[in-house]
Amino acid sequence: MNEMKDEQLTADPVYNALKSAIIAGELAPGEPLRQDEIARQHGVSKIPVREALLRLEVDGFVLFRKNKGAIVRELSAQEVLNLLDIREALECKALELAVPQMIDSDIAAAREIINSYGQKKTVEAWSALNLRFHQVLYEPCGNAPLLQMIDDLRARIGPVMRLLVTETTGLERPHAEHTAILEACIAHDTQKAVSLLRQHIQTTRKETAAKLIRRNT
């Protein structure tokens, strides 16, 4: 029993390090995860490494291929679209709860992000601003489990796919829609803000679906 507990404790830092690297895009979809190399990097045996990889497989971040070892799992087009459907439900609920709780500092933080868009010239910068804008809008909702679910969903989509979504949608449309959503929040018009957010996410999903279909044909 103690040996199993020790292995679990040893696997935890390996699991956390690999998960963080996958979420950050440091380990790309399809990249092989060689147990010997990982064990050497972490100074452990292959047993906790395999335990960590198996846990990551359960979480959907890793795929074991027969006789070929583990790789970073790549989401299918349908999985991405399904996650965007879930995003709509979670984020609209978060905004519904957040708007009545917003104070001047929340509005100022969101406006500062919007004003920064024109100063950025890369897809990576736009993607980061987009992510932060949505985070700032939802933080006042006061529902920690809901915010954690949204964070977990973003982690599942991953940085590679987030960049694809940003590249697909471009700058002008999201910027205009973000501005309209913020104006509704400033007016404390919860219904309008949620409606605009829902349209924003649905349009993004449609454009992403078209991009993924073209990419896979």
UniProtKB/TrEMBL annotation:
<keyword id="KW-0804">Transcription</keyword>
<dbReference type="Pfam" id="PF00392">
    <property type="entry name" value="GntR"/>
</dbReference>
<dbReference type="InterPro" id="IPR008920">
    <property type="entry name" value="TF_FadR/GntR_C"/>
</dbReference>
<dbReference type="InterPro" id="IPR011711">
    <property type="entry name" value="GntR_C"/>
</dbReference>
<dbReference type="Pfam" id="PF07729">
    <property type="entry name" value="FCD"/>
</dbReference>
<keyword id="KW-0805">Transcription regulation</keyword>
<dbReference type="GO" id="GO:0003700">
    <property type="term" value="F:DNA-binding transcription factor activity"/>
</dbReference>
<keyword id="KW-0238">DNA-binding</keyword>
<feature type="domain" description="HTH gntR-type">
    <location>
        <begin position="8"/>
        <end position="75"/>
    </location>
</feature>
<protein>
    <submittedName>
        <fullName>Transcriptional regulator</fullName>
    </submittedName>
</protein>
<dbReference type="GO" id="GO:0003677">
    <property type="term" value="F:DNA binding"/>
</dbReference>
<dbReference type="InterPro" id="IPR036390">
    <property type="entry name" value="WH_DNA-bd_sf"/>
</dbReference>
<dbReference type="InterPro" id="IPR036388">
    <property type="entry name" value="WH-like_DNA-bd_sf"/>
</dbReference>
<dbReference type="InterPro" id="IPR000524">
    <property type="entry name" value="Tscrpt_reg_HTH_GntR"/>
</dbReference>
